[in-house]
Amino acid sequence: MSAQSAIGTPESSTVTVSGNSASSVARRRMRRATLGMIVGLVIQFVAGMLLNLFTKMPDSHPGSNPSDYFSGSLQSMIWAIMRIPVDFATRFRREFATRFRRVLAHL
Q: Which of 35, 53, 82, 90 has the fewest CB atoms lying closer than 10 Å?
């Protein structure tokens, strides 16, 4: 049997790598990738729910009253992403100042 005639036969599609066939290794990798995607989606869902429950969006921000839904959504998303560093810095500064005051109060 030549190498060309072995292509496409069931015997040629299962290559063993240290006792495991290539298909079982591929299935294991696919399961891990699927599990990772499911975990990521659950984290995204929980983060979105917490954001919706515990934050107040300003009534007036870029994209809040658009004439076109998609352009307004894009403007809102860009506005929210650009605010992340500002909000993080403000919260970090406020938290640092609070903790620093507590430390000074105990001295």
A: 53
Counting as low any pLDDT under 70, the low residues of the chain are 1-19, 57
The C-alpha atoms of residue 67 and residue 30 are separated, in whole angstroms, by 43
Please give the mean pLDDT across all residues of the chain: 78
Tokens 């839904």 belong to residue:
69
Residue with tokens 């994209």: 63
Domain ranges of the chain: 1-55, 57-107
